Amino acid sequence: MVLLGVGFCYGYYLLDPVNPRNFAYLIGQCLGASVVLWLVAYIVVLRKANRREMAFLSACLLFSMILGNVIISRRAQLDVQQARVALQSIREVFGELRQAQTGSGDLTDLASPPSIEPDAIGPWGTIESSFRRYAAELISLRNNYATALRECGWLTVLDPAALTDESELEQCAKSVALARSLANDSHIDSLEVVARFESTLNRLELPSRLKSDFIAGFRRSLPQAKRQLDEIWRLELAMMTEVDAIVSLARERKGWIYADGQLNISDADQRTKFNSHLMAIRKIAEEQLHIAQSAFQTTEDRLDAAIESIG
């Protein structure tokens, strides 16, 4: 019975490698379970057998129980191994996503979406693939938005040559209006990506606590992610409002001279307003970057903690 209890203890210990309990406690707990199983087997089979048959059947029962726990333990070890592979891969993918979203800010710098093929296998491979698809969709959305902004003329809206050319100002105003529409559409698209990811997490079958705890942590973080997305896109529209204000100011320009690649505004009041709008744009960009960096840092810290917890 002691051997049987140790066998149960060994299996239970590996089934929960993230939060192992005191070994002596496990022996006591498993011995109790062993006694119950023994009594059931005795009532059903062993009491009807002679001494030799009882010894043989007892040995078979003991062997099968220990073997079963060893097999289950081995599966648990493999589960932990694949968890480590999946979490490290997800950590790398989110690093790529962070670089794409908070990197140079150059609209011509488009990141390549990661492959959705997982490094892990089994259930952890399914989990990893879900996170890879989520990151790939967000990077693709960012690339599409950047491309659309370039095509609508956003990069040249604040070009000094355009701001001092009456024929160009109308196109600048149209570019700002189109950019605002693109931002609204991308805001909706980004929330839909998060909603699809949340739906995918809800559909995952998670037989072990290690998987369910990991996914539950991300589920709890999604409402905050949505709020952060809302705030980032609100700031994006606020930035466009400031750019539009500069275009409107250029239509009323007084003493604006563009020469040798430089814009000079001789009117003090208009110069103050122009610089104020530029300063507001810089502050908005810094606030956007801070929100995004903070969100990614929280996610990476969570992933690092999960990886560390499994050794």
Order of helix and strand elements from N to C terminus: HHHHHHHEEH
Q: Which secondary-structure class do the elements indicate? A: mainly alpha
Major sheet details? 2 strands, antiparallel
Into which percentage range does the β-strand content fall?
A: under 5%
**Spatial extent as radius of gyration:** 31 Å
Provide mean pLDDT, rounded. Answer: 80
* Strand arrangement across the biggest beta sheet: 1-2
| CATH fold annotation of the domain at 104-309 | Four Helix Bundle (Hemerythrin (Met), subunit A)
Shape: elongated
Please describe the structure with a list of short key phrases separated by commas or semicolons.
311 residues, mainly alpha, Four Helix Bundle (Hemerythrin (Met), subunit A), 79% helix, disordered N terminus
Please sum up the structure shown.
By secondary structure, this protein is an all-alpha fold. Helices cover 79% and strands 3% of the residues.
What does the model show?
By secondary structure, the protein is mainly alpha-helical. It has a domain at 104-309: Up-down Bundle (Four Helix Bundle (Hemerythrin (Met), subunit A)). It is built from eight helices and two strands; from the N terminus they run αααααααββα. The chain has a two-stranded antiparallel ribbon. Strand 1 and strand 2 (262-265) form a beta hairpin. The longest helix is centred in the N-terminal third of the chain and has 52 residues, at 51-102. The radius of gyration is 31 Å and the shape is elongated. Residues 1-29 and 67-74 have low confidence and may be disordered.
